[in-house]
Amino acid sequence: MSISSNLQTAPKSKKESKTAWQVAPNLFTSFRYAWAGIIYAVRTQRNFRIHLGIGLVALFLGVMLHIKAIEAAVVAITISAVLVMELMNTALESVVDLTVGQTYHELAKIAKDCAAGAVLISAMAALLVAGFIYLPPLLVLLNTGIA
Ligand SMILES: Nc1ncnc2c1ncn2[C@@H]1O[C@H](COP(=O)(O)OP(=O)(O)OP(=O)(O)O)[C@@H](O)[C@H]1O
Predict the structure, then answer these.
(1) 66: pLDDT confidence band, cut at 50, 70 and 90?
(2) Which domain holds residue 97?
(3) Taking burial as the number of CB atoms within 10 A of a residue's CB, which of 26, 59, 128, 133 is the most buried?
(4) Concatenated DSSP letters for 26-52?
């Protein structure tokens, strides 16, 4: 969204907000905005695309290895956590850039570094979960393949 479009005056709608430029008039529109956020992250954030790709591979591997339903649920939650962290990171980066632009600010650095740290922790936890769930059946597969 360009800066000039941000400066437009608020549209006249029945539902008015004292803080936001506009408010979603219904649930369907809310979903549309949420979907637009996800599409934005896919288009612009390389790390989001990488994590999405790894997540899809992990789900496919889970199906191939016939993991239990509870394990699949844990994998799904873990993948979601990483993607959610990526989205929050993108949102925070945008707000920081909106506030300070291209000028250096120590607080902007702290905010961005902490958000990046949150993504890193969720990704490391995902690796750990993948190790616990996928390694045992993969080792069994490897052993039976060798034997
Ligand atoms: N305005 C700023 N003031 C101070 N430091 C900043 C500022 N903008 C960025 N940085 C520093 O540069 C790093 C990278 O910022 P940037 O906005 O490029 O994030 P990014 O590398 O695109 O993050 P991601 O890879 O998660 O998309 C930040 O983690 C922070 O340390």
Answers:
(1) very high
(2) 51-136
(3) 133
(4) SHHHHHHHHHHHHHHHHHH-HHHHHHH
